[in-house]
Design a protein that fits this description.
The complex is a heterodimer of chains A (111) and B (455). Helices cover 41% and strands 31% of the residues of chain A. In chain A, strands 1, 2, 3, 4, 5 and 6 form a 6-stranded mixed beta sheet that branches. By secondary structure, chain A is of the alpha/beta class. Chain A contains 4 helices and 6 strands; from the N terminus they run ββαββαβαβα. Chain A has one domain (2-110): STAS domain (Transcription Regulator spoIIAA). In chain B, strand 5 and strand 6 (153-163) form a beta hairpin. Chain B contains 11 helices and 16 strands. With 455 residues, chain B is α+β, with helices and mostly antiparallel strands. In chain B, helix 2 (25-44) packs parallel to helix 6 (171-226) and helix 7 packs across helix 8 (302-313). Chain B has helices spanning 3-9, 25-44, 50-64, 105-113, 131-136, 171-226, 278-295, 302-313, 392-395, 406-414, 422-437; strands at residues 67-75, 82-87, 99-100, 117-119, 143-150, 153-163, 240-247, 255-261, 266-274, 322-330, 335-341, 347-349, 355-357, 377-380, 386-390, 446-453. The termini of chain B are far apart. Chain B is rod-shaped, with a radius of gyration of 41 Å. Classes of the chains: A alpha/beta (111), B alpha+beta (455). At the A-B interface, helix 2 of A face loops of B.
Chain lengths: 111, 455
């Protein structure tokens, strides 16, 4: 797994590549929390290069969604492949997440 | 003269040509001294305990030379001080703990320069350190000190004290003691390596003991976890056949199931998966199952039950969550009311083998979010139909090529299960998944539940 963090104005884009599973969940959670603790409230999670997400990975997204909600921020999950989307669908998480086709689309939705 | 061959292997050049008949006095002396040195070397290597070696060295020195006492001083690599590891002789016991500063006294000098020193009148020699003598009351008349050298590194010194009969130490004594000191260095190094090995072994032994205790506790925890699962399957007299299986990847796991009768006509069943493995997952699973068992009654639908359980579980913002399917089966009508939270799709397998996914309205896993709604769905099992619940340990089981067993293979398998009892289906499914994994280790917990309405 590889995480790239970029700033687009007020918006923080976290691009997660590879497998977000139990082995990498903590790293991903810390990457998000470091930004949130720095006062950031608007996030795009770019999943366009994500191969797989496990339940431990889903938990990280849940933690992020709850955190953003508690500070009245906004979080968009962008660029899910069909197989990743299926996992979000199956877990019921799609019902509480805002999604977009790509990171660019997500950023323009927030602007 | 058995030892002749032995001596030759020591490489004494003058001895190789030695004939039994022509042995001169000189040669006899050389041979005796060589044999003695060889014996010392053999003896030193016969034990790896340093203390025993040291005593042997002292004894050897005293055998080689008629002296009152012998001692070995080793260099402490941390401080460069010389210290008495042991001293033998009538007062030997008393000098064990003494340390000398680097360069102090004759021993210090020998240790620094690596050259032997003979002192035949200690009292008048300015290099002589009086410290040991005054501490022990051992009067040093004369002494011979030789370095113990290993691969060019000075390890310490060997000292012979007070030659007996009031005689002086000679150059020959020096050569002899130097030859005694030579095998000592190697033996001492071996002993040091052995000591380190012994320490590592002890550390390993302790670690292993801790690990064993931990594993033992894990097994107990696993036993406690299994005790949360129903131990008896409902009787063969019932118009349904329910069976379930749980296989944890570790000693304890996060998958769970349960089933129990709510009243004469209604059977409750559930199966789920905590978002982790090991002890935290097992504890969370225990809490979840306890809440379900405590709260469920014929008055509630599965969806109402999940709302109540979720309210309890999500109260303290837990770090784990649990996906779940649960249902109530009516034995008279065959109707099943089901609710789910983020779990993988159950299947209905009809009596003719046709396999259909059960489309339930999706909701969030338990403990994911407070105030979550859970919805009820309905299906009807005709005689011979069954419902199959499972965790993603089945569909995401991987083979060595990292291909997943997948929902497609599961559905294909289920179409072939018409006529099987619930226990038979579960056995066959587990076998099918294992055959697919083909030796790749089970990485996730597995749980399966089959509820068949008897034909």
């Amino acid at each position: 797994m590889n995480i790239t963090t970029t700033e687009q104005g007020e918006i923080t884009v976290l691009a997660i590549e590879g497998r977000l599973d139990g082995q990498h969940a903590q790293t991903a959670e810390q990457a998000f929390l470091a930004q949130a603790q720095g006062g950031k409230t608007r996030f795009v999670l770019d999943f366009s290069r994500m191969d797989y997400i496990s339940s431990a990975g889903l938990r990280v997204v849940l933690v992020a969604a709850k955190k953003v909600r508690s500070v009245q921020g906004r979080l968009i999950c962008a660029g899910m492949s069909d197989s990743v989307k299926e996992i979000f669908e199956m877990s019921g998480f799609l019902s509480i997440l805002e999604t977009a086709g790509s990171a660019e689309e997500a950023v323009s939705l927030m602007a | 003269m058995e030892w002749i061959g032995v001596v030759a292997t020591l490489g004494g050049a003058g001895l190789v040509a030695l004939g039994a008949a022509g042995a001169s006095l000189y040669h006899r002396h050389r041979v005796r001294s060589a044999k003695m040195l060889f014996d010392i070397s053999m003896m030193l290597n016969s034990t790896l305990k340093r203390r025993q070696q040291m005593e042997m060295i002292m004894d050897s020195a005293k055998t080689v030379l008629p002296v009152e006492a012998a001692s070995v001083l080793l260099i402490d690599p941390d401080t460069n001080e010389l210290f008495f590891e042991l001293a033998q002789g009538e007062k030997g016991e008393e000098v064990r703990e003494i340390r000398l500063a680097p360069g102090e006294g004759i021993s210090g000098l020998v240790a620094e320069r690596g050259e032997s020193v003979i002192v035949n009148d200690a009292a008048s020699d300015p290099r002589w350190s009086n410290r040991v003598a005054s501490r022990t009351g051992f009067e040093t008349r004369n002494l011979l000190t030789v370095p113990i050298v290993n691969h060019g590194r000075i390890e310490g010194v060997l000292q012979a004290i007070n030659k007996k009969g009031g005689r002086s130490f000679t150059e020959r004594d020096r050569l002899l003691l130097e030859r005694v000191a030579r095998p000592m260095a190697v033996a001492l190094e071996n002993a040091r390596v052995y000591e380190q090995l012994e320490q590592s072994m002890n550390a390993l032994q302790q670690t292993t003991a801790i690990k064993e205790r931990f594993e033992n506790e894990l097994q107990i925890a696993g036993g406690i976890q299994m005790s949360f699962l129903p131990r008896t399957m409902p009787s063969a007299q019932e118009p349904y056949d329910v069976c379930a299986l749980l296989k944890s990847a570790k000693e304890v796991g996060g998958d769970f199931y349960n089933f129990f009768k709510l009243d004469e006509d209604h059977l409750f069943f559930t199966l789920g998966d905590v978002s982790d493995k090991g002890i935290p997952a097992a504890l969370f699973m225990a809490v979840t199952l306890t809440l379900i068992k405590g709260k469920m009654s014929p008055a509630y639908t599965p969806g109402q039950l999940l709302v109540m359980v979720n309210d309890e579980l999500s109260r303290d913002n837990p770090v784990l969550f649990a996906t779940i399917v649960c249902g109530v089966f009516d034995r008279k009508t065959g109707e099943v009311v089901l609710s789910e939270g983020g779990h993988c799709t159950p299947y209905v397998v009809r009596a003719d083998g046709n396999c259909e996914p059960v489309k339930l309205r999706k909701s969030l896993p338990l403990a994911a979010m407070p105030d979550t709604e859970y919805h009820d769905g309905r299906i009807v099992l005709e005689p011979g139909d069954r419902i199959v619940l499972y965790t993603d340990g089945i569909t995401e089981a991987e083979n060595a090529a990292q291909e997943q067993y997948s929902a497609v293979r599961l559905q294909e398998f289920l179409t072939m299960t018409a006529g099987m009892s619930s226990a038979e289906l579960i056995d066959a499914l587990i076998m099918h998944v294992y055959m697919f994994a083909d030796g790749a280790p089970q990485s996730d917990d597995i749980a399966v539940l089959s509820l068949l309405r008897r034909a």
